Amino acid sequence: MLNATKRIDGRTMWANLHLLFWLSLVPLTTAWAGENHLAVVPTAAYGFVLMMAAIAYALLQTAIVACNGQDSRLAQAIGSDGKGKISVASYVVSIPIAFFAPTLSALIYVAVAAMWFVPDKRIERLTSLEEA
Predict the structure, then answer these.
(1) Is 100 left (phi over 0), alpha (psi -120 to 50) or beta?
(2) What is the domain range of residue 90?
(3) Is the pLDDT reported for residue 131 higher than 70?
(4) How many CB atoms are located within 10 Å of the residue 74 CB?
(5) pTM of the prediction?
(6) Residue 22 pLDDT > 60
(7) In this predicted structure, what is the pLDDT of residue 49?
(8) Model confidence over 38-69: pLDDT tens digits?
(9) Cα–Cα distance measured from residue 25 to residue 48, given in angstroms and rounded to the nearest whole number
(10) Using CA atoms, how far apart are residues 90 and 108, in angstroms rounded to an integer?
(11) Residue 1 counted as domain residue
């Protein structure tokens, strides 16, 4: 996404740092959840970190579009970002579920990861059009 961006500003830089902060916590919570075999608190914490990373990604998208304009090709490529909205909603639902059914919560995390496993070609198409 940053590769397809024409301009960035301070807001975009802070949004990127915000995303990187939450992503830096993923290995910690992954190890904690893995060592405790689907214990309630580590599973919920893992989901919380994933949710915050998803929110930070959405904020980064918003900052980039604000800097480059709603009519930019990047804004058009991002569109409504259904995958992003589904991801955040799934994490919001899965965190409380972790307190009652940690296995179900973990299955929701896997489902979200599987959804993103299929590459999103919107931005790739944008960058290939600009290179041509």
Answers:
(1) alpha
(2) 8-131
(3) no
(4) 22
(5) 0.86
(6) yes
(7) 98
(8) 999 999 999 999 999 999 999 999 999 899 88
(9) 10
(10) 7
(11) no
